[in-house]
Amino acid sequence: MRSSFRQIRKGPTKPHISNIISKPQSQCAPVLSKHSYHVAPSMHNIKQFDSPNESPSSENLVKDMNQNYNFNADQLCDLFVSKAATMPLCAAVESFLKEKFKASTVIYWQEIPNAQILYSPTMKLKNDHSNGIIGTCYFQRTVMRVPQNSAHPSFSSQVDGKIASNSSSLLLFPLYDWRNALCAIAEVVSDLGEFSQDDEVFANWFSSKFKLFSKWLKQPFVNDNSLHELMEIHDHEAFTNIICRKMRETFDCREFEIWTYQKKQDKMMKFQEPIESTEGGIVGDSLTREQTINAISNRLNSSYNSKIDGDLEESVLSIPVTEKEDELVHSVALRGSNHDLFNKDDEDTLKKLAPFILLAYANAQEFSGLHNDVKSSREEQDSLAILLDVIETMLSQLDSNKLYEMILEKGRSLTSSDRCSLFLLDESKESLASFYQTGLNKPIVIPVSNGIAGRTLKEKKVYNIPDAYECEYFNSNTDRETGYRTKSILSVPIYSTRGEVIGVTQMINKKGNTPFSEWDGKIIQIFNIFCGIAIDNAKLYKESVDSSNLLKPFLNTAFALTKSEDIKNMLNDILKNARVTVQAERCSLFLYDESSQQLSSFLADGGKVPPTIPMNIGIAAAACKEKEGIVENDVYKSPDFNRQIDVETGYKTRNIIASPIIGPDGEILGIVEMLNKKSGDFQHSDLETTNAFASFASVALQKNRLKDIAQYGDIEVESSKYISDSEKSLYTIPEKLTLTEEEKKTVTSLNCFAVDFKGVGHIKELFYFFNYFNLLEKYKVTNDRFFRFISTISRTYTTTSYHNWTHACDVTQYLTYQLITSHADKIFNSDELFIMLTSGVCHDANHSGLNNVYNVKAETPLGILFKDTSVMEMHHLTISIPIISQSDINLFGSFDDNEIKKMWTLFINLILSTDMAKHFELVKKGQALIENKEFDWSNQEHRLLGMQILIKIADISNVSRPFEYADKWCDILNEEFFHQGDLEKSSGIGLTSPLNDREHPDKPKSQIGFYNFICLPLYTVASQIYPELIVNADSVRSNLEKWKELAAANAAKAEENKQ
């Protein structure tokens, strides 16, 4: 035998090779695969014996085996078996018979049915079935004793004359396999005289033994180790190289091929090369007719096609294999045997190997596809991580020239492009100027209507062009001027924070000579959002040298909200910071008195103000009525201006800003006025700044005693319903706020639906969570103070559909569940547990249901105030910190001065970590620590990361709840998204996310992306840090599969509707 594929007489035993429908013989293990193959039989008639005269009957065989021979049958049987075990079957037969008969020549003529010939592997001779004495034996199927070679009527000098001399005696007899099919003719040549009757008896005996043993002797066994190597997973290219090399070695031939034919589509391929089904040549004919073809000469075959079968005359063997499920036909084909032809052993071995080869081939194709998907996914995740780093650096750059250079370089690197151009619309809006274009020394100025950049600007859409010269909008003048050759272009518009197109980034010539991908377009669209923000920031910085000092008054204002319990001092700090920031000579704050319909003076910074202002006249009154800020730079020309105030105060007003103070429900609380800009006129940016300070004033007024007297009274009334006087000073859970045992099991499990605990149920579960870890007693928080904290913070939460009080309690419940399940309550100390639960309660205080992107893009006061940071998270902190610090709550009152700083820092870090903009950074950091085995609980930064990951997961915990709950939460969240989308459409800023589009919802598709991209990486990191939390990650995966099923069902339904 010629190869290791056919040396070991056993089948494959690897467990992953099984379940082939048309499986190999019983010696081989079954093959498991989703591919089911049927090997086409040889298309020849295997002659069966229809009568006792044609073949030895069973009775005759038994009789022969039981008779007394004049030879030692057992000894001869052992000799033949030993030879067959150590050499090819043909050689074993020839050697055995030569020794037995002391013959000059023995030939084993192997039957090759598909070629209609008998073939001698030893002598390399071919003989037609009908030719010579050998042909006669083939057709008679009996033992033939020929006394003299040349005297036989069927003697052929061309065949018989080459084998033996004219006077030689011949003994010929057929050999059958265990299926009673003729497989060979044995021819014995003797020069020592005629063969006897005893020799004929021996021939019959040997034929019967051969038939008996043929099931084990004739099988084309396959080397298990080689098959195992074949079945190892490779990509398509590597597998093709390996299988072609091995098959050439195995069959000692010139070439090996795998073909595929799709019957319904009439499509044919050789490996992955398309072939016209009418031009498939010999292998193509084998595929379409699903018949084995063993052609000794390709040129003599009726299906020969020189384009496919080549000009070289050679043998071809094609074995078709039908994949039943998909109605596909495959072929494994050999070309150019170095032994003139492919014999029956070659044919049987190839049939045996075919299912394994095709299974491995299918696995290689699937692996290549999966590998490409994983590679693409990994590249996308890496590019997002890089993008986050770029954004952080870019948003901190206020120098325009350096910013433009950064945009060009980072845009190019994000997309692996050769060059990047930045086109910005000039003030006239008639030209586009490119700044510092990579690869060019001079900027290029073009009319706004020219080229792909102009088209991108005009149509406000992305252009992904594989070949620039095939695009009608491409202006090739730049290439001619520079000598550069543009191939692919990705052109993406840049939007300002006001939603206006202000420029275009163009990525030029993707490296690798490939087009830009869909992902490249998406990543640059995201990149350009922040380019627009950064460009606006840089312009603002350029317009005002003092803008870098704006942050200090804001921070002072935020600090004033936390440090002062006196409302007047608090508002005075806010007012003073506002006046300094906008460079006004004077400022004042008036509170609205609904009963008297007047604005009453509360504070003034810089001069005398009237005690009251009527609501029926004046610019301040107009701003209150419209609930919008007003800038008036020539007040005496305004019909709304009340000149009487200047008369009473003796102060001459030139220009004014009036910004209303508006409560969370839209009610007017008061007005902030800025008078007389120290230099020049008030700008729109000054109004935005004043609006931001007015928002601070609103927070202060809402959450402090000036408007909380009635509220505290409500809390006292509410508290008395559940807490007796004797229980108020205790730390144990009040009797009326105690959960049942069944409820305790629910709130410490994954299968908890927070909506079921609305109302007093939320109070009960919070008492239970904090007492579970004995936090209230340890930190001396009495029942009265804790109830006051819960009531006060709960009232800051709005009635938005998702980010409401129920969500806060849901997050706190999931935090508790995680701490208990993972035994992390044994890792973290009481301080950390206390802060984690408190952060869960406070993390979305006063959430408006509008995300950070909306606040920045819509230029809400919070968006303006915190646009360089986490907008809503900073707001949640400014709301919750004063409540925690309130004298009748003072949740952190037991900490000393050194401890309190640490607790506040931890509290702030945990709430800021819930910003989705920090998501990838936290995941990436966790993955790196785990992969490098560096995570250490004794490291304070690592402990903080461990806590941040727990609260991050709790914030999106709905995805791991039972699917029934996950689905309900998805609907609740979508309603909030749709509300934001409605506002975005009505305000003209455009949808900030496809998820906000009420008119085109696709719940399953949106969830699949969210699970894959956001949830699973976070849950996986968590399960690596806290192994017991793998149950949550598994639940996410289970829900993901259900979303995929729904998506597939929707797609099928949509396709059905189309038809």
UniProtKB/TrEMBL annotation:
<feature type="binding site">
    <location>
        <position position="955"/>
    </location>
    <ligand>
        <name>AMP</name>
    </ligand>
</feature>
<dbReference type="InterPro" id="IPR002073">
    <property type="entry name" value="PDEase_catalytic_dom"/>
</dbReference>
<feature type="binding site">
    <location>
        <position position="843"/>
    </location>
    <ligand>
        <name>Zn(2+) 1</name>
    </ligand>
</feature>
<feature type="binding site">
    <location>
        <position position="1007"/>
    </location>
    <ligand>
        <name>AMP</name>
    </ligand>
</feature>
<feature type="binding site">
    <location>
        <position position="807"/>
    </location>
    <ligand>
        <name>Zn(2+) 1</name>
    </ligand>
</feature>
<dbReference type="InterPro" id="IPR003018">
    <property type="entry name" value="GAF"/>
</dbReference>
<dbReference type="InterPro" id="IPR023088">
    <property type="entry name" value="PDEase"/>
</dbReference>
<feature type="binding site">
    <location>
        <position position="955"/>
    </location>
    <ligand>
        <name>Zn(2+) 1</name>
    </ligand>
</feature>
<dbReference type="GO" id="GO:0046872">
    <property type="term" value="F:metal ion binding"/>
</dbReference>
<keyword id="KW-0378">Hydrolase</keyword>
<keyword id="KW-0479">Metal-binding</keyword>
<feature type="active site" description="Proton donor">
    <location>
        <position position="803"/>
    </location>
</feature>
<dbReference type="GO" id="GO:0007165">
    <property type="term" value="P:signal transduction"/>
</dbReference>
<feature type="binding site">
    <location>
        <begin position="803"/>
        <end position="807"/>
    </location>
    <ligand>
        <name>AMP</name>
    </ligand>
</feature>
<feature type="binding site">
    <location>
        <position position="844"/>
    </location>
    <ligand>
        <name>Zn(2+) 1</name>
    </ligand>
</feature>
<feature type="binding site">
    <location>
        <position position="844"/>
    </location>
    <ligand>
        <name>Zn(2+) 2</name>
    </ligand>
</feature>
<dbReference type="Pfam" id="PF00233">
    <property type="entry name" value="PDEase_I"/>
</dbReference>
<protein>
    <submittedName>
        <fullName>3'5'-cyclic nucleotide phosphodiesterase family protein</fullName>
    </submittedName>
</protein>
<feature type="binding site">
    <location>
        <position position="844"/>
    </location>
    <ligand>
        <name>AMP</name>
    </ligand>
</feature>
<dbReference type="InterPro" id="IPR036971">
    <property type="entry name" value="PDEase_catalytic_dom_sf"/>
</dbReference>
<feature type="domain" description="PDEase">
    <location>
        <begin position="730"/>
        <end position="1050"/>
    </location>
</feature>
<dbReference type="Pfam" id="PF01590">
    <property type="entry name" value="GAF"/>
</dbReference>
<feature type="region of interest" description="Disordered">
    <location>
        <begin position="1"/>
        <end position="20"/>
    </location>
</feature>
<dbReference type="InterPro" id="IPR029016">
    <property type="entry name" value="GAF-like_dom_sf"/>
</dbReference>
<dbReference type="GO" id="GO:0004114">
    <property type="term" value="F:3',5'-cyclic-nucleotide phosphodiesterase activity"/>
</dbReference>
